[in-house]
Amino acid sequence: MLQIHDKVFEPYITKQKLSNAVESIANKIALDCKNETPLFLGVLNGSFMFCSDLLKAYKTPCEISFIKLASYQQTKSTGKVNQLIGLNEDLTNRTVIVVEDIIDTGNTLEKIVALLKQTSAKEVKIATLFLKPTVYNKDIKIDYTGLEIPNRFILGYGMDYDGLGRNLDEVYVLKD
Ligand code: 5GP
């Protein structure tokens, strides 16, 4: 058991299971990218640990960069506008692989994909370590999924609860 602030978490996904899922995603991507050098785009903060292990398991040439989705208020009438922070690479003709820790509703993913579609990337693919299929409600195809989980709150392996727990090397779930 693990207590963080007011919440109690219990062990959920072991190191071994995580590393199998990561390796399987790396192998699938490598097969699909035989003739190219993909550019992995890790979505901060949650995906940092997954990205690190994914890249170690990816044995052929690739590049990595990190992005963050931010929104700023434009005017009262136009409302919030999303932007990608940290994208310094020229994506022209690149195969881009967005790397997410977890996809829940898919709202974050939808915004990121919309912004990447405005670039000249050849292809934008999605890799996520976790997916909550009962909550995900978008049409965007998720090309590589590590593990499907029910609609429960998890933390560890990069994912936080109120800023804490990202350093845990296993995944925990909020106790009912
Ligand atoms: P979405 O936009 O798909 O609803 O949510 C995506 C983001 O919400 C993730 O990148 C993550 O930061 C956060 N999130 C969604 N589900 C969980 C969860 O179970 N645990 C944690 N720690 N974060 C989550």
From TrEMBL:
A Pfam match: Pribosyltran
Keyword entries, A-Z: Cytoplasm, Glycosyltransferase, Magnesium, Metal-binding, Nucleotide-binding, Purine salvage, Transferase
Top-level division of the source organism's lineage: Bacteria
GO cellular component term, pick one: cytosol
Molecular function in Gene Ontology: guanine phosphoribosyltransferase activity; hypoxanthine phosphoribosyltransferase activity; magnesium ion binding; nucleotide binding
Catalyzed reactions per annotation: GMP + diphosphate = guanine + 5-phospho-alpha-D-ribose 1-diphosphate; IMP + diphosphate = hypoxanthine + 5-phospho-alpha-D-ribose 1-diphosphate
Places the protein is found: Cytoplasm
EC nos: 2.4.2.8
GO process terms (BP): GMP salvage; guanine salvage; hypoxanthine metabolic process; IMP salvage; purine ribonucleoside salvage
Main location, first listed in the record: cytoplasm
Pathway participation: Purine metabolism; IMP biosynthesis via salvage pathway; IMP from hypoxanthine: step 1/1
Cofactor annotation: Mg(2+)
Residue span(s) of domain Phosphoribosyltransferase: 16-161
NCBIfam families for the chain: HGPRTase
Family: Belongs to the purine/pyrimidine phosphoribosyltransferase family.
Protein name (Swiss-Prot/TrEMBL): Hypoxanthine phosphoribosyltransferase
Origin species: Wenyingzhuangia fucanilytica
